Amino acid sequence: RQEHNHQSRAVGALQALADPRSPGALLDRVDDDPEKTANAGMLLEASVTFSDASVAPRLMAMIDGDQHRSAAFQALHELTGYNQYAWVDDEDVTPKWEESLSPRYPEIFADLLDLAYRIGGSDLLSPLIGQAKWPEANDDIDRVLSALLSFSDDNIRHRAVEMTGWRLRHRGGPADGLKKALEGRDPLDQFYAAEGLALSGHADGLAVLRTAVDAMDDWSLRERAVLAIGVLADPSTVDMLLTIANDAAHGLRSQAIEAIGHMSQSERADEVFETLKRTVQNFSYDTIENALSGLRWFASPGAWALLREQAMNDNWWVANKAVEVLR
Known about the structure:
Layout: H1 2-17, H2 22-31, H3 40-47, H4 56-64, H5 69-80, H6 95-99, H7 106-119, H8 122-129, H9 139-148, H10 154-171, H11 176-181, H12 187-198, H13 206-215, H14 219-232, H15 238-245, H16 253-259, H17 269-281, H18 288-298, H19 301-310, H20 316-326
């Protein structure tokens, strides 16, 4: 314990000096430890507080060689900078917020994701997959995610399929892996792949989504299926969506009302608009927000006029939602 206290004080002194040799010296203390007195966790954590990318290869070697693997992984994860996004929602990530962050190293993140995959450790992969959305276009990250689409751990594989779909939509990632996942046997793999493709305008998984509307055990996935079908705006789905949207007792009515808003180019566009208009006028908290979103997707002069009208609604909640949609 006394030795660890000495090490803690030494770390504090090195951090205060901000000497560029400090990160290497801290790793040396961990590597050269014949008496096994090094407080490896503290030293490794301290080695990355300098944001010096040059320590990454040594930390990678520790993880790969199973030397203080957990502590080395945590340190390298910290060094990538992407753990700063761990508890952040998409809408909270603004340029101003990102400017306040410590440096981020997408290449190191991609290498760490690849190493976690090669080791096959679900515990290592789990915190990384959700953060794989934040680096911009990166072929190495997309390549590892593609490999994870056949990973043995169901939870990791499902999350990788979802993330591949997200990166297809927001980072210009590849669609091939998702199309292949449609052919698999796991219903969730098929669903997440079909949804990811649909939200990017690929209709390859439309049949999977149509089945999901009636067959998924998880009701929230049925809701997502309806919304994804709407994005595709496929003429063959207008009847199904309008039927649900006009059924006051249907559990998916709210999502169908929003989904039909994408059908402004269909042969039944007039009927779609009247359904949206009627839903707005027959106010209900259960459907009004979806109807306003549907009008945004419909994007006709009549739809915009109705949205502007609702922005002046005496009900402040409705007015606020309409303003949000108009932005």
